[in-house]
Write a structure and sequence with these properties.
With about 650 residues, this protein is an alpha+beta fold. The relative contact order is 0.14.
Length: about 650
């Protein structure tokens, strides 16, 4: 190679090396001089971890300010993450830095080491917070751990705020429960300041009113080393307790409703049905008490119920299985139950017939005890109960006596004249009443149900042809639907809301249990405003005719609930009601009874549904009578704001210990 070429190449290489060194020095100068403040801040931030300190949740009150859900301070034993430094979500074999600590702690608490390790590896807890291993710990165990603290590095005894239920089981299905935030919930709520280990409302009022009940979490700043070990605390911001949520329910009425329903079901279990040759199974039931003027829920009971404190500190697998066993105590049957309405549906058919002019208040139909569909060859005859004949009667008397033949005729006549009244004249009115429609329920859930109809049957066949092969609609289908049988199924909440709408003159209100929210000073920060869902056309003639029939149910000798209400103080509280007995193959009938009072100016709508309990007059009406008698003596008052809605003081945030 020529010397000139060699020198040129060496010069080029030298230039490239010089450029690289120059670029490196420029970058170092930038990092050390121009960007030094940002990097220093980042390095400092990497040494600080912010730990959220849970705020005591707001209290839950009834309409008079009585505490239903409060907070109590409990003693908890916690374990620092540094005891198991490499634990992660779902880890089964957890590397343990101090295995003897875990073994000693398990023995002291009377639990297994495996259960402690399982809790420590639960991804719902923050890696920088001590994990609660046991709550509400016996004082003798606490004393032992504290006296032998040198044997339990990383273990601490702290005071935590937990939910307390001074009213016992009352309104358990409404209240819901709280639990550690799940990974899915954390993903959804992280933008709202939630972190691992936070408690969040999981159901009921606790979930629906989470944003008020949660409060303002506190923050503790912890200094940690490169391995994540806690070195000390850099300060804290104290948490602020949540707002109080005042419900529309009356807790004294709620307890009365719960007791009456449970007592009636227990009585049915010991009542023999000679026709079926068995005792009434009556496995479940529900009661709803509404204010027809606004849709406010005054009481709501579902049987079986449960003690809501079972969720505090986390529910065990055994407890959850027991609650889930049939009949499940976790189902709020008042909202999520589906039942054939039976004769309670006659309100809808009577409204449609009077409004459309199919009949008038003075129209009489003869009842010979049965009804035969003309020109029919199979399944043509429909009977009254025990083929009882009531002779000639109008719609008022037909409602009072719950006469089936009268409504068989209405169903058939609507079918025959569908070119005049439309193919779904009765179903259209049911829709106005909200039956078979989406349930507007603020706590979530709420089944839609269905009112049997030609369009509904065709839709089911198109979507599920195997399960619903038959889509044609015949006269017999319209007859069955007209008196609340067939494939119609609705929820108790829908039925109660429908009768409340009739009681108030036609407005279907959105049922609600939330009344108002109050801050810690007692100031109202939010109030529920009643929402109208739909309206039922109830001309005076229609309403007065039907109302007279419903009053007769409990006051007229022909009334199906006359015997049940003998001796009732009608001078104190005039009642209008309707029985329902919904038959299903191979099972005892579902017993239904609905009533509103005072009949001329309703303040209460009461609905009782008990599964497999026989006739509505004997299975459910006695419960409604007891509730109405209670209301006659203990009328529900207006909502009253409490003087001090937040009874629990805000605790200081805990500082995680280091081993």
């Amino acid at each position: 190679m020529r010397p000139a070429n060699l020198r040129a190449r060496l010069g080029l290489i030298g230039l490239m090396v010089g450029c690289l060194f120059a670029a490196m020095f420029v970058r170092l100068w930038y990092l050390q001089v121009l960007d030094s403040s940002r990097l220093a801040a980042a390095a400092t931030a990497n040494q600080v971890r912010q730990v959220t300190v849970q705020a005591p949740r707001g209290t839950i009150l009834d309409r008079s300010g009585n505490l239903i859900v409060d907070n109590q301070t409990v003693v908890a034993v916690t374990v620092a993450r540094s005891v198991v430094p490499n634990a992660s979500c779902g880890t089964k074999a957890v590397p343990i830095r101090y295995p003897a600590v875990i073994d000693r702690l398990a023995k002291a608490l009377g639990v297994t080491a495996a259960s402690i390790l399982q809790t420590l590896s639960d991804c719902r807890y923050s890696p920088y917070e001590p994990v609660p291993i046991a709550t509400d710990v016996d004082i003798s165990k606490v004393v032992y751990i504290r006296e032998h603290q040198d044997q339990f590095p990383g273990v601490a005894v702290q005071e935590l705020s937990q939910r307390d239920y001074p009213q016992g089981n009352a309104a358990s299905h409404l209240l819901g429960y709280v639990g550690a935030i799940s990974p899915q919930q954390l993903t959804k709520l992280k933008g709202s300041g939630y972190q691992q280990g936070d408690l969040v409302g999981q159901a009921g009022v606790e979930k629906a009113y989470e944003k008020w009940l949660r409060g303002q979490p506190g923050v503790t700043k912890l200094e940690v080393d490169a391995n994540g070990r806690v070195l000390g605390s850099l300060g804290e911001q104290r948490p602020q307790a949540g707002d109080a949520v005042e419900l529309t329910i009356d807790v004294a009425l709620q307890k009365e409703v719960d007791a009456d329903l449970a007592a009636e079901i227990d009585k049915l279990h010991h009542t023999y049905d000679p026709q079926a040759g068995i005792y009434y199974p009556a496995p479940s039931g529900s009661v709803i008490v509404l204010d027809p003027r606004s849709g406010a829920v005054l009481a709501m009971s579902s049987y079986p119920d449960y003690n809501p404190s079972v969720w505090v500190g986390g529910i065990s697998a055994q407890q959850y299985q027991a609650l889930s066993a049939s009949p499940s105590a976790l189902i709020n049957r008042a909202v999520d139950g589906l039942y054939t309405p039976g004769s309670t549906f006659k309100l809808v058919t009577a409204t449609a017939a009077l409004n459309d002019g199919l009949i008038s208040p003075s129209t009489y139909i003869y009842d010979p005890g049965s009804f035969r569909i003309p020109n029919c060859t199979s399944g043509c005859v429909f009977h009254n109960n025990e083929s009882e004949s009531l002779g000639s009667l109008n719609v008022q008397t037909a409602l009072t006596a719950s006469d089936d033949v009268f409504f068989y005729n209405l169903g058939y006549d609507f079918y025959q004249q569908r070119s005049r009244y439309g193919p779904e004249a009765i179903q259209d009115v049911a829709k106005q009443y909200g039956l078979g429609q989406p349930t507007h329920w603020e706590l979530g859930g709420g089944v839609v149900g269905r009112v049997d109809s030609p369009s509904e049957r065709l839709s089911l066949h198109q979507h599920y042809p195997t399960a619903f092969p038959n889509y044609q609609w015949f006269a017999g289908d319209n007859v069955e639907m007209a008196f609340g049988q067939g494939a119609t199924v609705i929820s108790p909440l829908q039925l109660a809301d429908a009768y409340a709408a009739f009681a108030n003159g036609g407005t279907v209100w959105e049922p609600h249990v939330g009344g108002q929210v109050l801050d810690r000073s007692g100031k109202v920060v939010w109030t529920f405003k009643p929402q109208a869902i739909s309206h039922v056309n109830l001309p005076p003639v229609t309403r007065q005719t039907i109302l007279a029939g419903l009053e007769g149910v409990v006051t007229n000798r022909l009334g199906t609930a006359y015997g049940t209400f003998l001796g009732f103080p009608f001078n104190q509280l005039m009642v209008a009601g309707k029985t329902g007995t919904a038959t299903t193959p191979t099972r005892e009938p579902t017993a239904l009874f609905t009533a509103f009072a005072p009949a001329d100016n309703p303040q209460y709508e009461v609905l009782v549904v008990i599964d497999q309990a026989g006739f509505g007059s004997s299975g459910s009406a006695p419960v409604a009578r007891q509730i109405l008698e209670y209301l006659a003596q203990h009328p529900v008052g207006a909502v009253t704001a409490p003087a001090n809605p937040a009874s629990t003081p805000t605790p200081a945030g805990p500082t995680p210990p280091a081993p």
